Amino acid sequence: MSSQSIYRIKHLTIDFEACVITSNDVPISIDHKAIEVMNMLVEASPETVHIDQFMDTIWHDKPSSPEVVTAAVARLRKVFKQVGIKDELIITVPKKGYRFEPLEENPPHEISQFVAKKPLWLYVLLCFLLVALTISVGFNLKPSAHNPPNRDIAVTEAMKIQPESASGTTKIFILRHTEKIDDSEDPGLSEAGRERAQYWKKVLQHTAIDHVYTTDFKRNRQTAAIISDDSSVKPELYYPMSFEVLKFLNNIQGKTVLIIGHSNTIPDMVNRLINDNKYPPMSHKNYNILYLVTINKNGDSSSTMLHIEPPFSVVPAS
């Protein structure tokens, strides 16, 4: 048994003691033998584990050929690929066995370069939001009979000033589903959730969205349906467990898309899209965050996270 019973690779969690692999808390079907192979590789890293060692430790109880090790490694690699981990984690050592190479953290200079590559319009957008919010608060303190306060202006106008995307630029807006009615297995939206979804619709009304993606949960489908109600865009299903970043980006290149996700999948998805462990986990109580990822035609990515509260009190379901 490995000295650490839980091992994490990006959004993938391997519980060696329970012989379970999950991706964003969603269990992945794989046999115990393959997990035991992974356990030995992690425990021995960076050293090579010989085929005979696998055979003597895992398949000692019945006659087997070395091909069972090769097949187990192939199953592990398939899982990594299915969940969007493109890195070569298990290295084949010819005529010997296999070696595990853990992922390296991004060095500090890469992160600073990433920040430096942010386009100017993102900073303009954030500054405008601050100014607009200040003006909005001023209106609320001194309301006029002829010009009643409208805090929606701060957000909708901010979204309107976004410049046209350069040719080939991809924009990805990512939201969590809005408030659900209860904690049952697959609940729909509460009244507060429907109200917030209508507000997100207003926030994004000046954004020409080409595709809307949602998971196959009622609360997500309802959120997506409300936001895209007045457009010809019909929501499409995606599955976080098998979300492949490169394939997804190739399919939406040069488009503007909206993704409706979950609190336990969105930050990791954004981090994978920008290839940077930038965003921390999201609280399950948080419904007011909008992520925006932009990727230019050269593949350079940038991102921002906006906290946007609606101009009304959202009362969660009791």
Please render the helix and strand layout as text:
Elements: E1 6-9, E2 12-15, E3 20-23, E4 26-28, H1 32-44, E5 48-50, H2 51-58, H3 67-82, E6 90-93, E7 97-100, H4 108-116, H5 120-141, H6 152-160, E8 170-176, H7 191-203, E9 211-214, H8 218-227, E10 236-237, H9 245-251, E11 256-261, H10 266-274, E12 289-295, E13 301-307
Parallel strand pairs: 8-11, 9-10, 9-11
Antiparallel strand pairs: 1-2, 2-3, 3-4, 5-7, 6-7, 8-12, 12-13
Helix pairs in contact: 1-3, 5-6, 7-8
The counted number of beta strands is 13
Corresponding CATH superfamily of the largest domain: Phosphoglycerate mutase-like
Shape: elongated
Work out the count of structural domains: 2
Share of helix, binned: 25-40%
- The CATH topology of the largest domain is Rossmann fold
- Please report the first level of CATH classification, the CATH class of the largest domain: Alpha Beta
Mean pLDDT: 80
Alpha-beta content class: alpha+beta
Question: What topology, given as strand order, has the largest sheet?
Answer: 10-9-11-8-12-13
- SSE pattern, N- to C-terminal: EEEEHEHHEEHHHEHEHEHEHEE
Report how far apart the termini are: 45 Å
Return Rg in Å: 24 Å
